Amino acid sequence: MLYLELFIQGLVQGSIYALIALGLTLVYGLLRILHVAHAALFTLGGYIGVIVTNATGSFTLAMLVAMLVVGFAGMLMYKLAYEPLLSQPPYVSLIASIALFIASEEIFRIAFGPYGLSYQIPPLQGHIELFSGFYLKYAEILVMGLSTVLMIALAWLSMRTRTGVAWRATVTDPDMARAFGVKIQNVRYLNFFIGSSFAAAAGVLVALLNNLVEPTMGSVASYKALAIIVLGGLGSIRGTLIASLLLGVLESFGTIYIGHLLDRDAIAFAFLILVLMIRPQGLMGGKL
Amino acid sequence: MKKAKIISAVVMSGLLSIATGHASSIKIGFNVPLTGFAAADGKSALNGAELAVEQANAAGGINGDSIVLVVYDDQASPKEAVPIAQKLIEKDEVVAAISGSYSGSTRAAAGIFQEAGVPYIAAYAVHPDITRAGNYVFRTSFVGEVQGRAGAKLIGETLGAKKVSVITLKNDFGKSLAAGLKQAASNYGITIVSEYEYGIKDRQFGPIVSKVKSDKPDAIYATGYFFTAGPLVSQLRAAGITVPIIGQEGYDSQKFIDIAGPAAEGTIITTSLNRDSASSETKNFIREFESKTGNKADMVAASAHTAVKVIVAAMRQSGSTDKAALRNAISATSVVAATGTISFNALGEVRKDVQVQIVKDGNWHEHSVISDSKLLAPPNE
Predict the structure, then answer these.
(1) pTM for the full model?
(2) Pairing of β B120-122 and β B137-139
(3) At what angle are helices A2-31 and A38-56 packed, to 10 degrees?
(4) What does the pLDDT average to over B219-231?
(5) Is B239 on the interface with A (CB under 8 A)?
(6) N or C end: fewer C-beta atoms under 10 angstroms in chain B?
(7) ipTM score here?
(8) Is the backbone of residue A169 left (phi > 0), alpha (psi -120 to 50) or beta?
(9) Interface with B, mutate which of A2, A255, A257, A261 (most B CBs under 10 A)
(10) Which of A6, A13, A135 sits opposite B239 (nearest CB)?
């Protein structure tokens, strides 16, 4: 029963990782940029979620506003920070991304104060008792449910719509896609919009689980998401999803059973090193 | 010729007033985290210290000289604290300094101040090695181990719990508290049934919560700061755990209650600030802090306030800003401050009672006081 609880918690944590890491994979797949500043969008989503809920009392509205606003913020980030650097070697945009992220932590602190924000009336605090002693919080159910819905929506978008097909075409072969009349610029905007709004959803959900948003809440996500996309295979969406859930469950059991040996983050990286030694392209990565 | 005389007179009086300005202000250094993960506590500590300086200056300063707080942001990082300590000593030439920061940075800076012969007071950092840097270093709050031992008495004797699960924050603060608890546990009939650790950036404690639930302890001793304890306590209660949760001064902030909400009710902590204190010092501090900042007082603010008070009292006592004389005055001091009556032992550790507070109706209130002087005796060397 304990094992079941640990497993479910691993899935909850893994779902959050998936929502964050997905944006990173999408950006890497399209532009080969390691978008470290993605974690700043995660934090921004969390803040908007708390502020809008406290102002209007509606969590649903807050989630929608957060996803929308951060989606646009992501597009803006691309336009201002990455587009001008596309002709430069990849480490230039990586440095810009890291700089953006560091600046964002302090901007949040200056804008919202160092103390962090909490929900005045936290939504979804109840739980259901599935069977004796096994509690599942409404918030945890929402995390798993919403992530699944968003992933399915994304899959439908990319497989069943013209936009999705154009998007996949651009990732595979931008020149060919351009020849077919695909507007590359719009594809990039869409890419950043979707990745960023997923990160915002993750931020709002994390704020719900912890009842706390802080300026530095993105710091773990910033490097862990990188580890996850490498683990899953750079650019592979399926790999990212599998790696996220796997890591969530691994951390869940690891912190209890080998926690005295290895720190929680160390477990994630130790696992990454292990996998890379056996399979350098990551779990689902293509040929190197 | 006349013009030159006038110009030189103006320049001279300008220089004189600048020189006088220098001579009539007494500088106290203050390293505090204003950015980074500890910025919340740093801001509070800074407010507490600034309030104390304002109050001291309003009461005439030190024989007419006004006190100036020289503040630097150390980001709670030892790497930053060392050059800051050097700057305070060499560039700002402070007569004394206070650490409003965590143990990591305070430890690093303490050695620098000791070597330069500048009195240094750690307001709330708990690591025992801080005062071992030398006789110029003091601490106005409890060593981690002392507070941990008080926790053992609280749990074993006052609350009567026998089986305890310990959840420890993996840093100087958390570990020294847990060590203190373990030292004294058997004296009060406590068995530690399980122990778990977490990192300072963790906010999701699902696996630990599940495991603790299956351990079925009589009480939980969890070390951390309000930003880790808030989520932790909230998650423990949400999982259906109803046994007492005992924390320490790291929880001591209204923010803890804001984060954990109704789950915070009944949380008990060992700390230095008694909200229901009858002492006028404490009552004044709480009232003036709230009116100055709009926030409720917390332990770090009270501790920083106390540290400034100690230095001011010692300076008035010694009548000079000679650092060696100041050190002696601090060592011999006995002053009533917001966190109790402060006096130091040979090592520079404070001797005072432990306040136990509990969350009732969304606020911190007095639960009990632990006064066992043998149990609470701080290390002497």
Answers:
(1) 0.89
(2) parallel
(3) 120
(4) 95
(5) yes
(6) N
(7) 0.89
(8) alpha
(9) A255
(10) A135
Residues B151 and B243 in one domain: yes
- The strand pair at B219-222 and B245-247 is best described as parallel
Task: Say how many domains are in chain A.
Answer: 1
Q: Which range marks the domain in which residue B153 is found?
A: 144-271+355-370
- Indicate whether B1 belongs to any domain: no
Q: What is the DSSP letter of B155?
A: I
Q: Give me the half-sphere count of Cα atoms (radius 13 Å) on the Cβ side of residue A147.
A: 27
Are B227 and B264 found together in one domain? yes
For residue A35, tell me if it sits in a domain.
Answer: yes
**Are B360 and B226 found together in one domain?**
yes
Exposure string over B12-29, b if 16+ CB within 10 A, otherwise e? eeeeeeeeeeeeeebbbb
Instruction: Name the residue with tokens 């600048």.
Output: B18
Q: Give me the count of residues in chain A.
A: 288
Is residue A179 assigned to a domain? Answer: yes
Q: CA A153, A156, A161 angle in degrees (round to 5)?
A: 125
> Is residue B337 scored above 50 in pLDDT?
yes
CA-closest candidate to residue B207, choices A131, A257, A202 = A257
B192 and B252 both lie in a single domain: yes
Confidence of residue B16 (pLDDT cuts 50, 70, 90): low
Say what the pLDDT of residue B21 is: 46
Residue A164 domain-assigned (yes or no): yes
For residue range B164-204, what is the model confidence (pLDDT) as tens digits? Answer: 999 999 988 899 999 999 999 999 999 999 999 999 999 99
* B366 plus B318 within the same structural domain: no
* DSSP strand pairing (A127-131 vs A134-137): antiparallel
**Which residue, chain included where needed, has tokens 């020849």?**
A179
Answer whether A127's CB lies under 8 Å from A137's CB. Answer: yes
pLDDT at B20 over 60: no
Dist CA A155 CA A153 (whole Å) = 5
Q: Determine, for residues B42 and A114 on separate chains, whether the beta-carbon distance falls below 8 Å.
A: yes
The H or E element containing residue B207 is helix B206-215
Å from A171 to nearest chain B CA? 35
**B265 shares contact with chain A (CB less than 8 Å):** no
* Whether residues B81 and B151 fall in one domain: no
Question: Can you tell me the distance from the alpha carbon of B358 to that of B267, in angstroms, rounded to the nearest whole number?
Answer: 6
Same domain flag for B239 and B366:
yes
Contacts of A2 in chain B (CB under 8 A): 210-211, 214
Q: Pinpoint the alpha helices (H) of B59-158.
A: 78-86, 103-116, 144-153
Q: Give the DSSP letter of residue B85.
A: H
CATH number of the domain enclosing B250:
3.40.50.2300
Of A135, A137, A210, nearest to B203 by CB-CB distance is A210
Q: What is the pLDDT of residues B249-266, one digit of tens each?
A: 999 999 999 999 999 999
Query: What are the pLDDT digits (tens) for B66-120?
Result: 999 999 999 999 999 999 999 999 999 999 999 999 999 999 999 999 999 999 9
| B184 falls within a domain | yes
Whether A118 sits inside 8 A of B231 (CB atoms) is no
Q: Do A265 and B206 touch (CB under 8 A)?
A: no
State the residue for tokens 């049934």.
B193
Count of the separate structural domains present in chain B: 2
Task: State the residue range of the domain holding A38.
Answer: 19-219
In a domain, A85, yes or no: yes
Q: What is the Cα–Cα distance from B188 to B160, expressed in whole angstroms? A: 9
- Alpha-carbon distance B324 to B282, whole Å? 30
B235 and B360 in a single domain? The answer is yes
CA dist., res. B198 & res. A205, Å (int): 21
User: Does B234 fall in a domain?
Assistant: yes
Q: Which residue from A122, A133, A256 is facing B211, i.e. has the nearest CB?
A: A256
Strand-strand pairing, B137-139 and B163-169:
unpaired
